[in-house]
Amino acid sequence: MHDCGLLGRLVPPFQAITCRVVRDFYHKYTVDEHTLLTIRNLERLVDPPEHRRRFASIARDLESPELLVLALLLHDTGKAGEEDHAVASVRLAERLMDEWALADDARDTVRFLISHHLRMSQVAFRRDTEDPEIVREFAALVGTEERLKLLSLMTLADVEAVSPRR
User: Fold this and answer.
1) What is the rounded end-to-end Cα distance, in angstroms, of the chain?
2) Which percentage of the chain shows pLDDT scores above 70?
3) In this structure, are residues 32 and 16 in contact, taking their beta carbons and an 8 Å threshold?
4) Phi, then psi, of 116 in degrees rounded to 5
5) Model's pTM, two decimal places?
6) Cα gap 71→89, rounded to integer Å
7) How far apart are CA 73 and CA 22, in angstroms?
8) Which residue, 103, 110, 19, is CA-closest to 71?
9) Residue 87 near residue 78 (C-beta atoms within 8 A)
10) How far apart are CA 147 and CA 68, in angstroms?
C-alpha cells in the first residue's frame, strides 16, 4: 500500500512523513519506515517468540486493537513540521478522525495514545519508578487498565522500531 502510494491517499498525513529523516542518535529509519515497523512489531505478537508472550497475551485481551494500529499509524505524522510532533500528530489525527466520523470514545483513545506515546518510556527509563508519587502521577495520567495495556504495547512497538536489532 505504501509503495504504490495508496496509503498516503487513504491517510494523507502519511504522505508528508514519507522518506522524512530524523537526525538524532536513536532513529535509524525514516519516519515512514519507523511507523510501518511499529505496526509490524505489533503484528509479530500474533505468534511471538518466548520473550514476548506476555505482551502477546496483553494484545489478545485488547477491546479495540484497531485503535492501537490507527494510533501507531498516526503517532509520528507531526514530524513533518517544526512543532512538538505529538501535538502536531494529534491535530492531524483529529482531521482524519473527523473525516472518518470515528466515535467519540475511539477518538479519545487514539488522541490519548498519540499525545502520550513517549510518556511510558520516559517514566520507565528516566524516572524513579520506586517513587510512589511518580507511580501515582503515571496512574492518574493513564486512568484505566485498557489504556495501560494500549500504551504498554504502543511503547514496545515504538521503542523496538527505532533501529535495527543487533
Assistant:
1) 28
2) 89
3) no
4) -115, 20
5) 0.87
6) 10
7) 17
8) 110
9) yes
10) 10
The residues, any chain, with a CB within 8 Å of residue 27's CB and separated by 6 or more, are: 34, 162, 163
Cell representation of residue 152? 504498554
Query: Who contacts 42 (Cβ-Cβ below 8 Å, separation ≥6)?
Result: 59, 68, 69, 72, 153, 157
HSE value, Cβ hemisphere, 13 Å, CA-based, for 131: 9
Which residue is associated with the grid cell 475511539?
Answer: 106
| Amino acid type, 101 | A
List the one residue out of 72, 150, 135 whose CA is nearest residue 105: 150
Q: Exposure string (b/e) for 61-88, b if CB count within 10 Å is 16 or more?
A: eeeebebbbbbbbbbbbbbbeeeebbeb
Question: What grid cell was written down for 161?
Answer: 522500531
Percent of the chain beyond pLDDT 90? 52
DSSP 138-159: HHHHH-SHHHHHHHHHHHHHHH
Three-state secondary-structure class, residue 19: coil
122 Cβ partners below 8 Å, 6+ apart? none
How far apart are the C-alpha atoms of 88 and 44, rounded to whole Å? 28
pLDDT above 60 for 3: yes
